[in-house]
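chain below, 224 aa
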Amino acid sequence: MNRQTQGALLVILGAVLLTISAFSTTYVNYVKPGFRPLLVGAGAVLVGLGLLSVVQGWLGTPGAHAPRVAWLLAAPVFAIVMVAPPPLGSFAARLDDGASPPSPIAIYGELGHSGVTELTLGEFIGRAYAPSGSSLMGRKVRLTGFAVPSKTGWYVTRMRINCCAADAMALEVAVHGVPSPKENTWVQVTGTWIPRKGRPSDTYVPAITASDVHSISPPTAPYE
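prediction:
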């Protein structure tokens, strides 16, 4: 592989990185939104280095030939362009062993006494794990996630990531009172928390009695 070919590969790889981060939101299928500036910067650096290498090749500047294994640089390009994976869904959620119980030091504000309060699954689960769970008692809430059917019912689910999709874990709330939508359908579920019996164990899954469920388009940022 000569210098010009190396440069061309770097330009292509950088251009693809810029395409999914600077000019679209595809990157949120893989990492948290906060990583966007880093991805844009990395893509710009790769394009700059690639163009420099191509120009040096045209000018006849001597350079070392890369081994054939350098062609593996093209693998990420084909992976993203040809077979770009969608956000993690029900298949990944079923493989997950379940999220760890929320930290007991989490502090949540008071919920409104009227209307519907929109909560993330993480906050809903955290409130359900609270010593009394009283902040959810009788409150009508709305949760957003994708449907994961099971043998005993179904769950509204969302994946939480700390950094990227590789460390994702499933947040699940059992839904009662309405039939399950089609698997992986994104939905908004409105209802009330079903009070638990006793102290929650590590296997406790909060549940909600739904009064309304309707399908929505997948959100731009699929992870919590």
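The mean pLDDT is 84. The two ends are 43 Å apart (CA to CA).
thats it, cya
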